[in-house]
Backbone:
């Protein structure tokens, strides 16, 4: 069955009502017509660009641990160069010109090849659309799918920068319970099964999830849970928005065998060690996967990509063509040279860099965890789970042990008030960590009250381990002292 027949009902009215940008349609027609004399667009001629080449000096990935060598200033370097008038992975004549909303074809091809290696899928019907980073991609997916009055599913703690985005479009959130292994499939299905459309409106048709190194909890969905969630999505006709900025930052993986690398290459060998993505399970075109270079190259690049079925990809391009326009050309030129340029990193080299980055962050994770144990491990005041991916520790404050902790007969406690008090105490002591309640998704059915309300489970702090050791040492010492003082008050 054609995808536009089976999944078009998930598109919002805004998406269905949006018409293609007519000038972009003509531009694409000109691009696809060999030899045509194009006098239609106001495109400055490349001979007037004050740039003839751009050189990117990057670490060589020939060393065993390229990230460590680069950080210490001991790295061999190489230069990736994009030219206007000489051969390049993508010419600056194209990169610096107006372009397609979906991104330059050469860049999309390179990213599609990367996705084929990292996320081998049973379906070949997936297309890459470039975005201005992760946040831009997520919000565009919400606009593509969200109708005023809709309810979307999400983990009960999630990143507010994303979950705030659709609220102005009158989309509300329904939280799915979490445990140490991430979203609980049985709770997700319970919500869908018990949903009363007469009372609550349309049954949720979108699941937004951060499956690896979930922000803020750090949980990573095991393979079996991912399969269960995908099966539920198929059974209940959901679209999965797979927001996965921490996918490449997975830890505690088995060593990579030289013989496997010699046989299959580094990227394919490493990819087999990583958790399977929802995209790799997608047989029905239900997954919109979002990736980004922000966590693994640099956040200021503001360059990411969405992988989706062709129907959704077409509508995403229409949205981009009439809003943000194409991503910046300099970033696209760099990615093209890095992944597909002659004598460049290529996909195997990119994987070697990211694997080395994983090793670096794993050491920092372990360092911060040891600091926590030294400060609070035997106190009984707090405990922490060691994340399998991502950038954060999720510290549980055992608020029920505080001498001023109270719970009424209905099961409502002062946990939230005490957690806010601790946050202010820690801040005044000189360190900032994110309190758990800022990530909480409030269930409208509970109105934020009652013994099962999210406030009763928000006694957490999120802290990052991506900083330098000196920062972590100072910060955790202050945090530990502040927590002890708080419990003594």
Residues:
């Amino acid at each position: 069955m054609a995808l536009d027949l089976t999944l078009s009902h998930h598109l919002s009215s805004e998406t269905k009502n949006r018409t293609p940008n007519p000038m972009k349609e003509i531009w694409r027609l000109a691009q696809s017509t060999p030899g045509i004399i194009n006098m239609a667009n106001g495109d400055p001629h490349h001979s007037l660009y004050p740039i003839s080449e751009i050189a990117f000096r990057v670490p060589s990935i020939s060393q065993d641990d390229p990230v460590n060598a680069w950080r210490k200033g001991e790295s061999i370097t190489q230069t990736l160069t994009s030219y206007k008038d000489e051969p390049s992975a993508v010419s600056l004549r194209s990169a610096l010109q107006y372009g397609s909303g979906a991104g330059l074809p050469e860049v999309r091809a390179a990213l599609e090849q990367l996705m084929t290696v990292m996320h081998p899928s049973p379906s070949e019907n997936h297309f890459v659309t470039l975005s201005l980073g992760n946040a831009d991609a997520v919000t565009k997916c919400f606009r593509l799918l969200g109708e005023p009055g809709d309810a979307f599913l999400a983990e009960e703690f999630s990143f507010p920068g994303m979950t705030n985005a659709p609220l102005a479009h009158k989309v509300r959130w329904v939280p799915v319970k979490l445990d140490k292994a991430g979203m609980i499939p049985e709770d997700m299905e319970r919500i869908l099964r018990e949903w009363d459309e007469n009372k609550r409106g349309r049954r949720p048709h979108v699941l937004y999830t951060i499956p690896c190194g979930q922000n803020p909890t750090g949980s990573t969905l095991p393979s079996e849970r991912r399969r269960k969630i995908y099966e539920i999505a198929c059974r209940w006709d959901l679209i999965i928005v797979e927001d996965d900025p921490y996918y490449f930052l997975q830890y505690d993986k088995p060593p990579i065998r030289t013989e496997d690398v010699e046989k299959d290459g580094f990227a394919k060998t490493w990819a087999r060690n990583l958790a399977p993505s929802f995209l790799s399970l997608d047989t029905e075109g239900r997954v919109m996967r979002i990736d980004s270079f922000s966590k693994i190259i640099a956040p200021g690049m503001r360059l990411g990509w969405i992988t989706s079925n062709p129907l959704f990809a077409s509508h995403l391009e229409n949205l981009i063509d009439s809003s943000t326009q194409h991503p910046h050309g300099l970033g696209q030129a760099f990615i093209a040279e890095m992944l597909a340029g002659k004598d460049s990193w290529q996909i195997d080299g990119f994987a070697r860099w990211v694997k080395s980055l994983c090793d670096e962050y794993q050491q920092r994770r372990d360092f911060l965890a040891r600091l926590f144990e030294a400060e609070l491990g035997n106190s009984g005041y707090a405990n922490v789970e060691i994340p399998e991916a991502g950038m954060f520790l999720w510290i549980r404050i055992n608020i029920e042990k505080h001498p001023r902790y109270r719970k009424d007969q209905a099961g409502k406690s002062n946990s939230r008030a005490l957690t806010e008090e601790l946050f202010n105490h820690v801040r005044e002591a000189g360190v900032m960590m994110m309190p758990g309640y800022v990530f909480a998704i409030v269930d409208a059915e509970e109105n934020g009250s009652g013994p099962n309300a999210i406030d009763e489970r928000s006694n957490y702090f999120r802290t990052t381990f991506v900083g330098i050791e000196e920062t972590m040492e100072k910060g955790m010492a202050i945090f530990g002292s502040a927590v002890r003082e708080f419990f003594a008050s």
The longest helix spans residues 346-376.
